[in-house]
Q: What sequence folds into this?
């Protein structure tokens, strides 16, 4: 493997700082402010940012490097969640064994599906993965009810054996990391601001940093170069006598292990698993995350995951009462008109806003949010160079002929 370059090291440090300071960065507005609605620095949402960031990072290893578009990755997410909850029920509430089993189950399930699906490419591959995911969803709801608990979902109970933990009495036990409660939260007050430091979030954030580091290593490795070659021209590689299937299958399995890891972390955050995590909409969501952030880039999937989860959790909670509070100082007729105008784009209609933004990004920024950042950096860099170049300043002051 190639060693880390300077840009990779800087990128990893930036991501680590964002994870560390997220409880502060995501709470820019005072707690009593009407704009506190847009704060996202509370544990549940921050955990979803990093967990679905892991999910998208893994999907990007398959789609971003090989160009194989899977519509069935939610199957591995759900399988990882079920495996983790079973570990909590049978063994211990410690999250480490649950996460390890979730990764293993996700990888094995991906190897099985990938072995069959990768016999085809293009749209046929996508349809096969979608079919497998929907079959998994249907099985979890019906045939595999003894393992998945069907529509109710798999949950903890006081009668669970948990052979390495003392029997629970009174209330259900909580997940922990060698005794550290994953729900443990320290609240820091700084004037009108409130910041929550949660143990589960920082554990998930640390795992995401490791997953991000591994993705950089994969991208910069000879294996990653082979995957890029598959995306560039798989047919030409086949003409050379080189079989591409072992490489694509390995990428598919690694991607499935990332999805299983994300599913295990979701169960560690909230120890339950349901078949809805295997539904096709969950698979489509990770596709949107990756494309929106920038497929094939390193940090793009993380940005896309945060973007979508922010809209899902923040904009979906803006209802008519909140809108009337915002526009309450205006005349009644204007207030009602603005509420009527904004209403379809928030609350239950947040999907419409997200869809419009997704269209704008695809049309004007085909490379996703990462391309937008590069363009902004390029414009700022050109202005700075012109400001520091005396000849450029003099030329700009000369009248045109």
A:
């Amino acid at each position: 493997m190639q060693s880390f370059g300077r840009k990779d090291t800087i990128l990893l440090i930036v991501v680590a700082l964002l994870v560390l300071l997220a409880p502060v960065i995501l709470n820019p507005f005072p707690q009593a402010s009407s704009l506190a609605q847009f704060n996202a620095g509370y544990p549940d949402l921050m955990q979803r940012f990093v967990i679905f960031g892991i999910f998208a990072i893994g999907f990007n290893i398959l789609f971003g490097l090989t160009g194989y578009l899977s519509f069935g990755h939610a199957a591995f997410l759900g399988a990882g969640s079920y495996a983790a909850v079973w570990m909590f029920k049978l063994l211990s509430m410690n999250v480490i064994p649950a996460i390890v089993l979730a990764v293993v189950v996700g990888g094995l399930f991906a190897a099985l599906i990938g072995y069959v699906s990768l016999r085809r490419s293009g749209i046929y591959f996508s349809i096969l993965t979608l079919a497998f995911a929907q079959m998994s969803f249907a099985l979890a709801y019906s045939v595999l009810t003894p393992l998945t608990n069907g529509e109710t979902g798999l949950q903890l109970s006081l009668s669970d054996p948990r052979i390495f933990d003392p029997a629970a009495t009174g209330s259900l036990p909580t997940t922990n990391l060698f005794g550290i409660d994953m729900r443990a939260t320290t609240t820091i007050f700084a004037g009108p601001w409130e910041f929550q430091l949660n143990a589960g979030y920082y554990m998930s954030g640390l795992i995401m940093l490791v997953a991000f580091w591994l993705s950089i290593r994969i991208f910069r490795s000879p294996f990653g170069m082979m995957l890029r070659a598959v995306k560039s021209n798989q047919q030409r590689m086949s003409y050379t006598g080189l079989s591409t299937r072992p490489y694509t299958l390995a990428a598919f399995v690694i991607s499935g292990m990332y999805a299983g890891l994300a599913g295990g972390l979701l169960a560690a955050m909230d120890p339950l698993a349901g078949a809805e995590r295997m539904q096709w909409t969950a698979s489509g969501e990770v596709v949107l995350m990756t494309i929106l952030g920038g497929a094939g880039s390193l940090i793009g999937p993380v940005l896309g995951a945060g973007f979508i989860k922010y809209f899902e959790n923040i904009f979906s909670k803006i209802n008519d009462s909140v809108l009337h509070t915002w526009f309450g100082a205006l005349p009644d007729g204007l207030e009602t008109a603005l509420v009527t105008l904004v209403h379809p784009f928030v609350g239950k209609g947040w999907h419409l806003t997200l869809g419009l933004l997704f269209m704008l990004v695809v049309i004007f920024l085909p490379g996703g949010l990462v391309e937008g950042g590069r363009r902004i950096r390029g414009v700022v860099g050109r202005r700075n160079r012109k400001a520091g170049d005396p000849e450029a300043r003099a030329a700009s002051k000369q009248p045109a002929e």
Summary: The chain has one domain: 6-296. Residues 245-269 form the longest helix (25 residues). The chain has 16 helices and six strands.
